[in-house]
Design a protein that fits this description.
transmembrane helix; 0% strand; 325 residues; mainly alpha
Length: 325
Amino acid sequence: MNVERWLIRQEPQWLELEQLLNRAETEGIQSLSAREICRLSQLYRLVSADLARAKTRRLGSSIINYLQGLTLRGYSQVYQGQRSQDWRKIWWFLQRGFPAVVQQTWGYTAFALGVFLVAAAIAWWYGWRDRQFLELVVPSDILSLVEEEGKLWMGSIVGVEPLASSAIMTNNLSVAFATLAGGILGGLGTLYILWNNGLHIGAIAALVAQNNLEYPFWAFVSPHGALELPAIFLAGAAGLLLGQAILLPGRYRRFSALKRNGALAAQLMFGIVPLLVIAGVIEGFWSPNPLIPNSVKYLSGLGLLAALGFYFAWPLERSPTGEGK
């Protein structure tokens, strides 16, 4: 290798990288354009290779130290910038991307909601007419507590809020992912979970109404339910997307339909997780709190539901790159 010719050829690129690094370090990586960030990454890889070559050829400590300094500075900026871009993408998804996919798949969510409501209505109707049905659907300890003592069962959360909140989050997330996974069975597993949850809600609603406990019961449910129930319906939509791709791929090949619908389902689940985490915190600390008036709990539930509806209806104007659609 002709060292002088190699140095003459490579030095302009080293200087270009140094200039970009100086700007990134003084003004922040966000001061660089997308093209400049890409160029910085390319030059970083080039200089890393040049450093390895300089060490192998033993070109002298001054050149090696210079290239080593550029490599260390470049590493810091490239991977710091990558993390910054990752967080920016996450923020964009939560701000715009999640509402976009919810709007795109609203028909599946509506169908999941319909299945749940039909099951709840049937359970409500049978709950008023058939005692054996209540015994079959409602856990026996809840049934006896409500009918014999005239109490709700949420008081057990008070005093163990952190533990209860963690358990609630874990349970809700497992239900959501099971609802998604049910789509692999052609959507039948998803429909079963939605139907089963609807039956339980409807039966319990009938039970508390028969014992004049409906007002405190729905006061407890409304704050966290405003987020938790929509999240489950969205998980149902994700499962139904998978089921449709398997059973009714339409004009797509089955693999292509599964890939397309699977991407939408994954985006739905990515947005569902924070909803269920927030709902778990509310259910653990706010919903069962006896110091908070029931009227305030109802208002908070309505406020959260309205905010969620506004969020899902958010007008979509920008892409993740910041360009208009």
